[in-house]
């Protein structure tokens, strides 16, 4: 099968489940007074046939925004409720609908550099899907990125692609050649041509599973602020590679386990904290109630602590 028909088949499979996110804006005209208009600001995709849609939290985080969703067949739905998870830059949108087409997820841990990457989105805020094609050019990257409309955020463990993205693509799916979602398009790096990024879909899956069970976004929580000590920093500073704890939140699982500022977590269960695995990635994959075995370097001596994962406080950003 040639590349062109592969792309067409993948797009045909997934695009019915891709939606435009629209916000109502009010403009004041000196002669005619206030006027309202609809502006496409991003993209989303349907994950549940009864009206659950995923996008980026930065696309729908205006508390007074009046949002609607436009499906590929041109139908417009009012947004009933938005659930934001700002730490992962993901949002779940509820609309009233039944029997909608849904996307299929890939296992993004199996994403390989060089594989095809197809981005589908509402380019530059128009109301129709556009398609760009490229390859996965990097995985497990960390970046500082601008959202399409300004604001800088640090993302961990993202997929890098050369499929061209622009602001309206935010929240749309990055899919493989089989039409399965591997990531959620998020940003283009500052000052870079043709370097775009997507949040791996495996970051979304536990958030969505928890939401379907509990009706709200539940985030696993350890309760530390940290900086990753990379192999390069490790050599320069003569410190072990791992997560250097700069703050332990009071009454948090980390505090109850006995962690202190200045500890370096080098391993959690069987996962080593190295360039490929950051602390937040490991915690994100844990479930509330899981017991984690933390291997800690405390002033040069290894100590082992056990922490029980809790749900993040609702007021935690």
UniProtKB/TrEMBL annotation:
Any single GO BP term: proteolysis
Annotated GO MF terms: serine-type endopeptidase activity
Classification via SUPFAM superfamilies: PDZ domain-like, Trypsin-like serine proteases
Keywords linked to the UniProt accession: Hydrolase, Protease
UniProt keyword Transmembrane, yes or no: no
PDZ domain boundaries: 213-300
One Pfam family, short name: PDZ_2
This protein's record includes keyword Manganese: no
Protein name: PDZ domain-containing protein
Organism listed in the record: candidate division WWE3 bacterium RIFOXYB1_FULL_42_27
Record lineage: Bacteria, Katanobacteria
